[in-house]
Amino acid sequence: MMRRSNFGNSGDSPFDFERMFERMNRQFEEMNRQFARFAETRPALESGDSDSMPTVWSQGGIQVDVAERDDSVAVTADLPGFEKDEISLSVANDALTIRAEHDVDDAYESENYVRRERRHHTVHRTVPLPVEVREEEASASYTNGVLTVTLPVVETDDEDDDSHHIDIE
Question: In what residue span(s) does the SHSP domain sit (predicted)?
Answer without folding.
Answer: 55-169
